[in-house]
């Protein structure tokens, strides 16, 4: 009898201890900085308050879209995080590097139909060799922002920039932009209408604008010398030449240096009247410049009558190799990339969701945000290659050479494939 009583008391103690057990703490790394890291922290806090078994801790680490050196060092040293936020288009490359955990078994256990709930392109970017290595988070598109107040004050007709009139041509955009340019006595720019390679004026942006194709996925080849890509780079070369390459670089380094505070964005300060950037800028302008008058329109097109274009990117949640609490990490990832998490991030940051039901929920999008929502229907995407980061960096080197006018588009782009294709060949076939 006494023995049975002791067993019963022991069992009660186990139950009671379990009831008050500390939650499993997982680490979540992001390279995001304010204000976007602030949005993520709000989401993490909401998740932590929603349940008691897992507690996520957000840690800001150095890095960027293609720079994951800190993660790779940590994973190889056995000190990596449980969850890492990764630019989605390089998921395949990091999976090929052996840095990520295959999420397929977790997905099959939690929700075998998960893929059907996401936008197809986003899920595709999260996959490699028939397995899923990340969970899609947000997406975004790019457009042309313009300061209606400043352009009007300068006596410039902004009618061609009204989205109701369709995309502006690149020639008309240049005409408007150069009317806004001003220099000081030394010839240095004090304000510029538009610099096509500033902000989100990337190689992909202009390649897509001119109808370029960056890869042939079926053939397993990168195509940096595609005629449309070359045409986009030629536009950049000619525009930079007209501005004066060094003068333009000096202007950017002066008014938009690295780690420039968001409130010092040259678009906000009036140093730049127009630039290409994404939907996330809506939230930033509302926070840091609520009184300025601005508008948004389609990316420019080569000639009148061309259909509008844009491109969409986005981030994802991954579980690095060696995660100490994989089950808890996956639970956190599912919430952050699920309906509750993505809805919250959409409202906080003005990005677009990758969950189909949310992407088509018009109640989430008002004003300029609704404009970006509709551009998603014709957005291009970067090729999801197992050399995606290397390709991006190689294109960036060519892009810099062209915008500095130290190499022609053909010269610069001809150097890309020899760097990238041999490494891509190791992973063929892609499909």
Q: What would you note in describing this structure?
A:
- The chain has helices at 2-19, 36-50, 69-76, 91-96, 104-110, 120-125, 148-153, 170-180, 203-209, 227-243, 245-255, 266-269, 281-288, 326-337, 339-349, 356-359, 367-375, 388-403, 409-413, 416-424; strands spanning 24-30, 54-60, 83-87, 127-128, 131-132, 135-136, 138-146, 182-183, 189-194, 215-216, 221-222, 272-278, 295-297, 310-313, 315-318, 352-353, 379-381.
- It is an alpha+beta fold and 431 residues long.
- It has 2 domains: 21-137 and 314-337, D-Maltodextrin-Binding Protein, domain 2 (3-Layer(aba) Sandwich); 142-312 and 385-427, Periplasmic binding protein-like II (D-Maltodextrin-Binding Protein, domain 2), CATH 3.40.190.
- The strands form 4 sheets. Strands 7, 8, 9, 12, 13, 14, 16 and 17 form an 8-stranded mixed beta sheet that branches.
- A hairpin with a 2-residue loop joins strand 4 and strand 5.
- The longest helix has 18 residues, at 2-19.
- The termini are far apart.
């Amino acid at each position: 009898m006494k023995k049975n009583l002791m067993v019963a008391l022991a069992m009660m103690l186990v139950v009671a201890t379990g009831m008050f057990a500390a939650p499993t703490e997982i680490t979540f790394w992001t390279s995001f900085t304010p204000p976007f890291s602030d949005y993520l922290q709000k989401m993490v806090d909401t998740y932590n308050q929603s349940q008691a078994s897992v507690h996520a801790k957000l840690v800001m680490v150095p890095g960027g879209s293609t720079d994951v050196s800190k993660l790779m060092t940590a994973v190889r040293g056995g000190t990596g995080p449980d969850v890492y936020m990764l630019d989605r288009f390089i998921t395949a490359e990091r999976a090929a590097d052996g840095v990520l955990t295959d999420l397929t078994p977790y997905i099959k256990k939690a929700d075998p139909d998960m893929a059907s709930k996401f936008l197809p392109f986003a899920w595709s970017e999260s996959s490699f060799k028939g397995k899923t290595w990340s969970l899609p988070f947000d997406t975004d598109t790019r457009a042309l922002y313009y300061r209606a107040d400043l352009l009007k004050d300068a006596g410039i007709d902004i009618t061609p920039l009204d989205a109701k009139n369709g995309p502006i041509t690149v020639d008309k955009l240049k005409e408007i932009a150069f009317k806004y340019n001003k220099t000081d006595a030394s010839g240095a720019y004090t304000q510029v209408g538009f610099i096509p390679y500033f902000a989100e004026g990337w190689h992909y942006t202009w390649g897509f604008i001119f109808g370029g194709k960056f890869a042939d996925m079926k053939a397993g080849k990168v195509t940096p010398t595609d005629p449309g890509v070359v045409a986009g780079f030629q536009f950049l070369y000619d525009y930079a030449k007209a501005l004066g390459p060094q003068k333009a670089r000096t202007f950017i380094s002066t008014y938009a240096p690295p780690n420039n505070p968001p409130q010092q964005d040259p678009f906000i300060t009036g140093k730049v009247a127009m630039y290409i950037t994404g939907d996330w800028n809506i939230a930033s302008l509302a926070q840091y410049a609520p009184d300025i008058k601005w508008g948004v329109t389609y990316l420019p097109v080569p000639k009148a009558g061309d259909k509008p274009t844009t491109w969409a990117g986005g981030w994802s949640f991954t579980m690095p190799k060696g995660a100490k609490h994989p089950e808890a990490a996956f639970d956190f990832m599912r919430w952050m990339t699920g309906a509750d998490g993505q809805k919250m991030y959409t409202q906080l940051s003005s990005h677009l969701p990758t969950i189909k039901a949310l992407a088509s929920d018009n109640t989430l999008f008002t004003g300029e945000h609704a404009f970006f929502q509709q551009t998603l229907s014709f957005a291009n995407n970067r090729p999801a290659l197992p050399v995606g980061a290397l390709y991006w960096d190689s294109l960036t080197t060519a892009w810099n050479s062209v915008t500095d006018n130290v190499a022609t588009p053909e010269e610069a782009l001809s150097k890309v494939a020899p760097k990238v294709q041999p490494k891509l060949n190791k992973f063929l076939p892609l499909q």
